[in-house]
């Protein structure tokens, strides 16, 4: 059986959250989650337990692909320090920065 991706886990957690918000009983929700996502009842119950702690659905992230970047040493140090202090991953920081930069380029070119 293939492992779930982060996006799969987010979808399963959101489905559990929606069922709880719609007052589906725990046993029914557990069986529905297990059937819908091909989970064991034990794993479905874990998603329901985690979903009970949520205030709102979680974000389903887009699939990612690895890339290699070559940066000047000083830039890499600044990036690592920023990641450490902000609690964000380097990938999240680079993604946000590139998205902001590329959105300005679309307007100008």
Compact summary:
The protein is an all-alpha fold. It has helices spanning 6-21, 26-37, 41-51, 73-86, 90-108. The chain has 2 domains: 6-51; 73-108.
Key traits:
109 residues; mainly alpha; 2 domains; 5 helices
Description of the structure:
- The protein is an all-alpha fold and 109 residues long.
- It folds into two domains: 6-51; 73-108.
- Helices cover 66% and strands 0% of the residues.
- The chain is built from five helices and no strands.
- It has helices spanning 6-21, 26-37, 41-51, 73-86, 90-108.
- The model has no long low-confidence stretch (mean pLDDT 92).
Shape: elongated
Determine the N-to-C terminus distance. 46 Å
- Integer tally of domains: 2
What is the typical, i.e. mean, pLDDT?
Answer: 92
Number of helices: 5
Largest sheet: none
Q: What's the number of extended β-strand segments?
A: 0
Provide the β-strand percentage band. Answer: under 5%
Low-confidence stretches: none
Structural class: mainly alpha
Q: Helices and strands, in N-to-C order?
A: HHHHH
Q: Classify the helix fraction into a percent range.
A: 55-70%
The whole-angstrom Rg is 19 Å
């Amino acid at each position: 059986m293939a492992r779930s991706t982060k996006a799969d886990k987010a979808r399963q957690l959101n489905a559990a959250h929606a069922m709880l918000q719609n007052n589906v009983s725990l046993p029914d929700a557990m069986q529905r989650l297990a059937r819908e996502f091909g989970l064991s009842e034990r794993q479905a119950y874990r998603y329901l337990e985690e979903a009970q702690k949520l205030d709102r659905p979680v974000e389903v992230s887009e699939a990612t692909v690895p890339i290699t970047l070559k940066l000047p040493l000083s830039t890499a140090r600044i990036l690592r320090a920023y990641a450490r202090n902000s609690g964000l991953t380097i990938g999240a920081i680079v993604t946000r920065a590139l998205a902001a930069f590329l959105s300005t380029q679309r307007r100008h070119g």
